[in-house]
Amino acid sequence: MKGTIVIAAAILLLAGQVSQVMGQSASETLTWTNAGGSVGYCLAVTNITDSFGVPMSGGYVCPQQADSFQPPNPFNVGSLYLGEDIQEGIQFYPGPPTNQTYNTDGTLHTFDIVSTFTFGSSTLDGSGNYVTWNGTMTQHYLVTYRRVCNYLGCHKLGSWSVTGGKGTLVAQPY
């Protein structure tokens, strides 16, 4: 009788642990690379891969457009269109420029900016679980200069363009 109770208790304990594990979804990761383009506008995604190494169809990364219908904004509110995953109104937090290179005259030539973001306190994953998405995105910039002259004199005018980038998005169940 004592042995039966111990076995029954072990089965109940194991069943409770299994149901806890089955109720949790594993984290999902999406990685992407994107093409270059104009600063502030959507950038075409050239490659997306999920946690299992399965490639997905393309999309867009828009770090300064809250959705695809709005012009760029200075507040770093953007959107992601990665395959079937669409997220709009995301707050991006850009870090300081890193990996700077300079021209021979000392002017800035290239640099990177790493942005972080979090969203989705009420987002459901494919299993019906609530998840929080955390991500990082690195964009590579090129600064080009041209000489501009007017009645006040001549000046160097620099403009930025994005030469490409990459990102990672991780869904964590809670």
Rough outline = elongated
Distance between the termini: 41 Å
Percentage of residues assigned to helices:
10-25%
Q: Give the oligomer, counting copies of the same chain as homo and different chains as hetero.
A: single chain
Strand content: over 45%
The structure class reads: mainly beta
Number of strands: 12
Supply the number of helical segments: 1
Which regions have little confidence, pLDDT < 50, spanning 5+ residues? Answer: 1-25
Radius of gyration over alpha carbons? 24 Å
Structurally, how many domains make up the residues? 1
Average residue-wise pLDDT:
78
Q: Could you give a short account of the major beta sheet? A: 12 strands, antiparallel
* Element-by-element helix/strand order: HEEEEEEEEEEEE
Helix and strand arrangement:
Elements (H helix, E strand, L loop, with lengths): L1 H22 L4 E7 L2 E2 L4 E7 L5 E2 L2 E4 L14 E6 L2 E7 L1 E2 L3 E5 L5 E17 L5 E21 L2 E21 L1
Antiparallel strand pairs: 1-3, 1-12, 2-12, 3-4, 3-5, 5-6, 6-7, 8-10, 9-10, 10-11, 11-12
